[in-house]
Amino acid sequence: MTLRFIAAAAMAASLAGCGINSIPTAEEKVNARWADVQNDYQRRADLIPNLVATVKAAGAQEKSILVEVTQARAGANAVTLSPEELSDPSKVRQYERAQNNVSLSLQRMQEAYPELKSQGNYTTLMSQLEGTENRIVIARRDYNTAVQEYNTRIRTFPDAVGAKIFYGAKPKVPFQATSANAEVAPTVNFGNGG
Question: What is the pTM of this model?
Answer without folding.
Answer: 0.62
